[in-house]
């Protein structure tokens, strides 16, 4: 897992969302989101920006810092 994929998972859990729910909020496919969280694909900036806003964190924190729950 990458820092980004770990942060996606941490933020999703912080929001108390399932992968299905967060994929719907982000308006992306469920499998696509699962691949982002697994580190199999890189999430586009637009998805990272939306998730940062939802989690009330900076984009820099999503990209570069390992977040803790």
UniProtKB/TrEMBL annotation:
<protein>
    <submittedName>
        <fullName>Putative helix-turn-helix motif protein</fullName>
    </submittedName>
</protein>
<dbReference type="GO" id="GO:0003677">
    <property type="term" value="F:DNA binding"/>
</dbReference>
<feature type="domain" description="HTH cro/C1-type">
    <location>
        <begin position="8"/>
        <end position="62"/>
    </location>
</feature>
<dbReference type="InterPro" id="IPR001387">
    <property type="entry name" value="Cro/C1-type_HTH"/>
</dbReference>
<dbReference type="Pfam" id="PF01381">
    <property type="entry name" value="HTH_3"/>
</dbReference>
<dbReference type="InterPro" id="IPR010982">
    <property type="entry name" value="Lambda_DNA-bd_dom_sf"/>
</dbReference>
